[in-house]
TrEMBL record:
The keyword Oxidoreductase applies. InterPro entries: Aldo-Keto_reductase (IPR050791), NAD(P)_OxRdtase_dom_sf (IPR036812), NADP_OxRdtase_dom (IPR023210). This is Aldo/keto reductase. Keywords: Oxidoreductase. Residues 16-307 form the NADP-dependent oxidoreductase domain. It holds the Pfam family Aldo_ket_red.
Length: 333
């Protein structure tokens, strides 16, 4: 597994990272034993970046990773944690909190659940409109000086916020959705990050399974948030599945699967981009890792662009109520 550095100041991590959210939350029922086995397999195959959020399963995901870490080489791994999202006992979402005192509180609980003395990459999950980003990053910079966190990251924020945050303390990377169906960051956000030397950890590289080659029109599960996503509804779903089928044909012609081609495309966008694989099971992880063997020449890139042209996705990537909380989307709404 090759390594990529997250920005000019961040850690060196594997070319692909493992996004662990689905092992605990939002994609329907999960299997603890399979989740642990998938994490172990990822590390065995060379993945060194594990991504989570303290609100995934209301702490369950961190506890799952903490359990896995007991038998893994912690010193060789980079743990990335998002914080700030507020949830209730019924799983509801209640906004965000990035006040300095709240950050220290969130961190204390994360360290205990993960069973570690530091977090390698720590980031607010979204911009808190009630707290200036300078105040949030200033508090995190103090945590870096104290040794509790190693690097500061951001998630789903726009170019102006990135600049303001970076002026307070070097930002290692921005976590944001980036895929063949979601290319909005190419306009302003990605150029800003490259100007400032900030890496990208790209989530949603398969558009939550939509272009993986494994999604069907009649698929759905209780507790799966994709049922509320505009891209998975009605005529939007029909259109997007037709794009996925075109990608599948392009992949088959190159001896790959649609998922592998989609992941390889994101990885090919630059050495400063690390795709996160949201695999919940070992078989899906094994398929995703096959993307590392996919070589994309000019003809391949042209075929991919022809299958899924930019701005061809039908429907927004989140419901409007959620987009309203995303600073990264503010200029585009």
């Amino acid at each position: 597994m090759e390594q990529r550095q997250l920005g000019r100041t961040g850690p060196h991590v594997s070319t692909l990272g493992l996004g662990c959210m689905g092992m605990s939350d939002l994609y329907g029922p999960a299997d603890r034993a399979e989740g642990l086995a998938t994490i172990a397999m990822a590390v065995e195959r060379g993945i060194t970046l594990l991504d989570t959020g303290d609100f995934y399963g209301m702490g369950h995901n961190e506890m799952l990773i903490g359990e896995a870490l007991r038998s893994l080489p912690r010193e060789k791994l980079a743990i990335s944690v998002k914080f700030g999202a507020l949830r209730g006992p019924d799983g509801e979402w209640n906004g965000y909190d990035s006040r300095p005192a709240a950050i220290r509180n969130f961190l204390a609980y994360s360290l205990r659940r993960l069973g570690t003395d530091h977090i390698d990459l720590y980031r607010p999950a979204r911009l808190d409109p009630a707290v200036p980003i300078e105040e949030t990053i200033g508090a995190m910079a103090e945590l870096v000086r104290q040794g509790h966190i190693r690097h500061i990251g951001l998630s789903e924020v726009g170019a102006e916020t990135i600049r303001r945050a970076h002026a307070v303390h070097p930002i290692a990377d921005l976590q944001i959705e980036y895929s063949l169906l979601s290319r909005g960051i190419e306009d302003e956000i990605l150029p800003t990050c490259r100007e400032l030397g900030i890496g990208i950890t790209a989530y949603g590289v398969l558009s939550r399974g939509l272009i993986s080659g494994h999604w069907s029109k009649d698929r759905g599960a209780h507790g799966d948030f994709r049922a509320m996503s505009p891209r998975f509804q009605g005529a939007n779903l029909d259109r997007n599945l037709s794009l996925a089928e075109a990608l599948g044909r392009a992949a088959e012609a190159r001896g790959a699967t649609a998922a592998q081609l989609a992941i390889a495309w994101v990885a090919s966008r630059g050495a400063d981009i690390v795709p996160l694989i949201g695999a919940r099971r070992r078989e899906r992880l094994d398929e995703a890792l096959g993307a590392l063997s996919v070589q994309l020449d000019e003809r391949s890139l042209e075929a991919i662009e022809a299958a899924i042209p930019r701005n061809s996705a039908a429907g927004a990537r989140y419901p409007e109520a959620q987009l309203a909380h995303m600073d990264s989307e503010a200029p585009h709404r």
